[in-house]
Amino acid sequence: MSSIPYEAPPPRQSLGRRLSTFFYRHPHLSLALLLVAPITCFVVGYLGSLAVLLLASVWNVDPFTSQVVHTYTLANFRRIVEEPVYREVAWRTIRMAALVTVADAILAFPIAYYMARIASPRTRNLLVVAVLMPLWASYLVKAYAWRTILSGEGALNWALSPFGVSFHGYSTTGLWLVFTYLWLPFMILPIYAGLERIPESLLEASADLGGRSVRTFVRITLPLAFPAVVAGSIFTFSLTLGDYIAPKLITSQQFIGTVIYDNHGTNLPVAAAFTLVPIGVMIVYLVVARRLKAFEAL
Amino acid sequence: MKTVGRKQLVAAVAAVGVGALAFLAAGCGGGGGGESGQASTEIKGLGSTVEEIQANAKKEGEVDLVIWPGYADKSWAKQFTQQTGCKVVTKDGSTSDDMIDLISTGQYDGVSASGNATVRLMKRGDVAPVNTDLIPNYADVSEGLKNQDYNSMDGQPYGVPHGRGPNVLAWRTDAVTPAPDSWSVIWNKNNPYKGKISIYDDSIFIADAALYLKATQPDLKIDNPYQLHDNQFQAAVNLLKQLKPNVGEWWSDYAKQIQSYANKDIVVGTTWPYQVNILKGDKKPVQSVKPKEGTTGWSDTWMIYSKAAHPNCMYLWMNYIISPQANAKVAEWFGEAPSNPKACNYTTDKNFCADMHANDESWWKNVYYWTTPTADCGGKGGTCKTQQDWVNAWTEIRG
To answer: Rg for chain B (alpha carbons), in Å?
Structure first.
């Protein structure tokens, strides 16, 4: 019996396999498909709404109905610049953001240092959970809890009363405490990550060369961790700059966020013009942060 | 395999960006706002008879309301749901501006609007005129509240009157003695209660300053606290600036104010009867009064959004909330005079309507209902400060 040479037909490819081959041959297309949803979301949802808001700053408003009238004006910007109240509010907010950032950096550094360099792995894990835990609780719950703590009859004044001190909680100082508490985890985590990245060998080298612990800390650890501190400060600074809920709950003073919030329904153009202030401040802040290599530490 | 270069990525982002901007431009160009055409009570999908509305409502199954806190409590909203099949979903507004803002998002069917919101809502076309024939309980509403300039336009009603009430002076009896009967307790410059005063955080509060000036500085010749000429307005603003250092808390969130009174962080201030009711319910030593100078207040109207998604449920709600039983409950709960006199037979406290002076018009003479300040001084002529001036001044006063 002679055998007939048999050539097997190529296996029928499934649709999935063919698609996979297609995308392998056209990497651009696969990338485009992958990115189209997030980019559309970012551009339309985020940049788009921002553009519409900024556009609103050059419009007028009907003095009776408070509706936006689509006629061009620069009066809103003039108002922001000329009325001293807006300048005062902007300064107050920037000052608050800076003070909160400094306080958070001072508080966060030792905690992060302990977590990264001293604590046993077990303790370290516990501490990471402890730092993250407050982030899982609602912001509002925390803000209201602080209202109770800061009240004249609250826990803070109860604790201070044996010393004959009383603290007016619903004040700028009270708000500073609340912000410092709220954003502390955002400072601890970048510093912790930054400290962990410092190679042990550098510290050993410093010790070998006769550097004592303080000198090693000041000359090696601190400079290497500094970009991480700046990275953390981006969070604490920007979050304070834009917040309006805590200021509303804790103080009676106006901040950038509360002014925008209060005006967005009644005078959207002025609110829109005022948003340029925090945007401008943040751009400057980010440029400086970039110079300080904060983005590499993130 | 070819890798995707940076250039291509940038190009892709740019392409999406240009597309998005074109989309936005198209959207922005088309937006012209609501049209305020003829007063037609037709709303898409609304039944033409009460029976039809009831049948349609079963299909809608929901009504979304913007309310003053406490206006749709479970204790009467639940019964409405049982009767009609419409679930009641609510969103609290804290100021009239807040409510206008909420209703114009288009996500709600109706709103319990005060006089400083109603006229703006009508002019903006955000709310629709109502066909009162489809609201059987409307016939029972006090005649004095119907067809007012804050709830109708050109003789056409734009909603149903809900009730009215005064903004009151409230104080802690264990801190403020003797019991005050004048607003001077908050306006006094050298104030013993400095830092413990609570003030409503909205530009409409300028009227409260004007009201006090009307009583104490007759040379200013203030007539209506919402219609202020330049010098009158300036005097009110100055009075508020003088008050500012004494204020302990500016409130617009009623829960925040209740907490402050309860904790004694605040001992005197301006509030709604609602907060006083809750504080008294919690056995806090709080009392309130309508001071001798008179006060500002509100007369509220339930209005339907012009493009309501659930118009049938909203019509049923407007009918339900002014029914004697429900109107009695909400009036007693919030602490206001009901719009339906028959409600007085159903209040748990039999003296409630008498205590609220519900039918005593002379008592309401010096209660100035919230209304929108207009340039033409409410149609009286002359030049008055506008709503916008009030809002801008408020930012300045708050500092």
So the answer is: 24
